[in-house]
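Hi support team,

I've been running sequence recovery on a batch of backbones for a student project. Most finish fine, but this one hangs at about 90% for roughly twenty minutes before it completes. I'm not sure whether the input is malformed or the queue is just slow. I've pasted the structure tokens below so you can try to reproduce it. Let me know if you need the job ID as well.

Thanks,
M.K.
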């Protein structure tokens, strides 16, 4: 099946990726350089490799976030909005239609792996500090 990426924000260069201050895994870095986010056509779903809390074991890919100065789907804006909830060794790279988050591991044993988090996994808000319960989706961005 051929997958197209639409609504991409255009190619990036290495300087822009260096400016974000995060050492991105190579597969994801290449994706951003080539596509810089977008929507998949046809829409794609995924199963969790390791489900969490017996709530569900699959979801859909929403918008793959981009590095740009826009309001929706901005990798940097999502980082700023969720930085107090998301561990420092993870980066939000996408969402699902139900407000779940798709994250990429940045260091240690998580590096390069793709994870999923949804508020039903654990409450966050005014009194909660950080998400801790993630479902493993794929061992690499390429597998995702």
């Amino acid at each position: 099946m051929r997958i197209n990426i639409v609504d991409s924000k255009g190619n990036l260069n290495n300087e822009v990726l260096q400016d974000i201050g995060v050492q991105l895994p190579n597969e994801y870095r290449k994706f951003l350089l080539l596509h810089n986010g977008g929507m998949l056509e046809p829409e794609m779903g995924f199963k969790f490799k390791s489900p969490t809390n017996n709530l569900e074991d699959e979801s859909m890919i929403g918008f793959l976030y981009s590095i740009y100065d826009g309001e929706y789907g901005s990798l940097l804006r999502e980082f700023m909005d969720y930085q107090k909830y998301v561990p420092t060794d993870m980066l939000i790279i996408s969402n699902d239609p139900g407000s779940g988050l798709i994250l990429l591991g940045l260091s240690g044993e998580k590096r390069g792996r793709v994870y999923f988090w949804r508020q039903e996994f654990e409450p966050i808000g005014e009194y909660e500090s950080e998400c801790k319960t993630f479902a493993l989706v794929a061992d690499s961005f390429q597998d995702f």
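--
Follow-up from support: It reproduced on our side and the slowdown came from queue contention, not your input. The two ends are 15 Å apart (CA to CA). No action needed from you.
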